[in-house]
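Q: How do we represent a protein-ligand complex in a form that can be generated token by token?
A: Start from the inputs.
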Amino acid sequence: FTHMQYNVQRLGFAAVTKEDMVFFDGLLSGRLVTDLDILEASNVDWLRTLRGHSQVLLRPQTTEEVSQILRYCNDRNLAVNPQGGNTGLVGGSVPVFDEIIVSTAQMDNIISFNTNSGVLICQAGCILENLNNYLEEQDFIMPLDLGSKGSCHIGGNVATNAGGLRLLRYGSLRGTVLGLEVVLADGTVLNCLSSLRKDNTGYDLKQLFIGAEGTLGIITAVSILCPRKSAAVSVALLGCDSFERTLDIFKESKSMLGEILSAFEFLDHSCRAVVCEHLKLRNPLQESPFYILIETSGSNSDHDQEKLNHFLEKVMSCGLVTDGTMATEENKIKAIWALRERITEALVHDGFLYKYDISLPLERIYEIVTVMKDRLGTRAKRVVGFGHLGDGNLHLNIVAEAFDQQLLDSIEPYLYEWIAQHCGSISAEHGLGFKKKNFIHFSKPRAAVQIMQQMKVILDPKGILNPYKTLPSFSQ
Ligand code: FAD
Ligand code: MLT
Ligand code: ZN
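Then emit the structure tokens for the protein with zinc ion bound:
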């Protein structure tokens, strides 16, 4: 963990005392964790690139407990790091110094589910996959799906405004989240847990907390609109020769599959090599420079199948696609999805990862992979591109044998400048967290950052909530 430049000074927060520990232990009836192994797991991020030094992990079960924790921390000037499943990829979920970790792990109750409206209300610590399994039993699904579904919490998803594999179909959490309950820094409980689709009464405050990465409040409960489970799901994996062709296939899929298209993902041949090499997954297709994963979901399998067949015939006969396979059976669908969903896991086995999550206009989206390959040459072990093509979101990952500061200096800020010049975003869906907060100016004008800083001061005047994250320090 020596590579991250911790070019940040600890702010003047109080340090946790024995008296504080006694207070928390009493409040939480023993759900204060000081076990070193558990603390280690909560201090280190999923990518294992950052390590904080918190000595205290709190596991509240109720909103009232979260409220009392924050009121106490605010009075005592103790810094707090909200934590869900700790799967975040930008260092937002782990402390930088000795911030108290407030985990939602024990806030995992489903509060209600309405089968008429499809509105689910649950506590923030529910694991995404558990929620989806619960809904599937009732013929519904969650409107989002991520490779980290087995660990990430819905509160963490909302706090990061996670995108993922279903955004193309069901839109962002900014639309599907109908209400939130949030505890503010001073312990105030803000109950905006509406389950209405339409509610234009004043400012939509919940939007402030969606994507705020725990810097404005702790989300304790979520109300979310869930779609029906589709009766027919099919997945196709296609190979093609060039990136331009993947775009042609995308256009064709929008026109021919229309309302049943539910995912359009892509990976390049290096990603395919990494998942096959490190996870021993089998590639069902012949070698191709690019692979596309298309999913369709609809209500009538005959109708959907016919549409998909027409589409596949068209893209194969005109040579856009060089090879392809299709699945309607659950196990086969899962096997195809694994080739895409498990890239992140495979890359971690490959070496040290420089991870970038970029939005760009579709026409230029893959160009940056080639630009970085040329720029870094043999200093990078691999430069790979994959992602949510249908959403204009590229995951550019650069792998090296070990961390190398010179390599990092060759990547940044050059990459961010390139993205800004091409009207992209330096963080499409992962957020800014600790790693990227100082690059916010590449994607937002100064006036916008200033308003964000003013909002932070209004909601968290002492700055105790997730300090050192998301916003650049005031001097910048
Ligand atoms: P954490 O990692 O614990 O926290 C993330 C941030 O949210 C932190 O800043 C934390 O302080 C804050 N936070 C957490 N809970 C709360 C709360 N209750 N209230 C306020 N703030 C809170 N992301 C995508 O967008 N799309 C993907 O497709 C995707 N795929 C992934 C695949 C893998 C294999 C992995 C490891 C990660 C992936 N991610 C993806 C990133 C990550 O899973 C998401 O950002 C996820 O939403 C984080 O949820 P979490 O519960 O793990 O939050
Ligand atoms: C994905 O789409 O697989 C995730 O966002 C994870 C990643 O970017 O590594
Ligand atoms: Zn992603």
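The CA atoms of residues 267 and 340 lie 7 Å apart. The chain is about 35% helix and 20% strand.
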